[in-house]
Amino acid sequence: MGASLLDKRLLLVTGKGGVGKTTVCASLALQAAKRGKRVLLVEVAPREHFTRLLGATPGGHAEHPVAENVWALNLDPLLALEEYLETQLHVRTLVKMIMGNPVFRRLVNVAPGWRDLITLGKVWHLERQQDPRSGRPRYDLFILDAPATGQGLGFLRTPQAFVEAVRFGPARTHSQWVRDLIEDRSRTRLVLVTLPEELPVNETIEMARALHEKLSVPFEHVVVNAVAPKIFTDREAKQIRSLREDAERSARVSEALGDEGRIEDLLGAADAALSRRAIHEHHLRRLRAHLGRPARGGAAKQAAKTLIELPFIYRSALSLDDLRGLGEILEAGGKGSLDAS
Fold this sequence. Notes:
Layout: H1 2-6, E1 10-15, H2 21-34, E2 39-43, H3 49-54, E3 64-67, E4 70-74, H4 77-89, H5 92-100, H6 102-110, H7 114-128, E5 141-145, H8 149-165, H9 170-182, E6 188-194, H10 198-214, E7 219-227, H11 234-245, H12 247-257, H13 262-290, E8 306-311, H14 320-332, E9 336-337
Parallel strand pairs: 1-5, 1-6, 2-4, 2-5, 6-7, 7-8
Antiparallel strand pairs: 3-4, 8-9
Helix pairs in contact: 2-14, 4-5, 4-7, 7-8, 7-9, 8-9, 8-10, 10-13, 11-13
């Protein structure tokens, strides 16, 4: 998985809000940079998450370095629209007049899909750019921290919707170009990120089904973030539960330790770790089962997905070394396939 995923031109990373999409994007970027690739991280957010996560200086709507061989861009759709209009009209004063018109700005803000199309169009434009000295692409890999899955389907379908709605002209042509990029299996991959919890897994299953039935965006990878580690073997877990249920044995162990309360604390902590791991394993099994089933309406079975488990890291803030470690796991490809057959 690692080579095929990191060797693409564009990674679209989405998932329910709060599951760690930005962490996955940054980890993938650091791992690709380690392989000598020039990477651009793109986000559309009120605040710059990549600069905070990587300990870099904010740069706004401008490509700026955040790590060795890694740049970031907090994309402002209105500024991107202004840049697009300049390429079409070639008169900067006219573009400024249009963009400064409050009625036009209100229309842009309420027009369905325009912000999404401009965002993807800007990524398409950047993907085509080359270094004038070497003739090589300016960046080898683009990683887009896409909208959460609640909006992600509409975001990804926007170019096709514009192709269907606009019959001729530059808007249709550019929409086709953007659609072709995000549907190109040789250049693009969609990555779904989730947590091993009820609601994120439900949303991931629904998103995967919708992708299979409604879109042609290449999708093969599911990243399950913050998975509780398996601290105890099955035999050790059985012994812990047995000791917890046997008050007399527990008292003897506590006496031997010389601290009557300590054994209860230790057993309670062990039991909590076992319970959390059991819940996470339950949701991992759900992912494996549901993403291998035929889609609704008798559609063909979905292609097997690669499940990548990222461990829960017991720290309040992730370090660069933590992110690099997660990047290595992402490149290694996790534990195999979600194919339920």
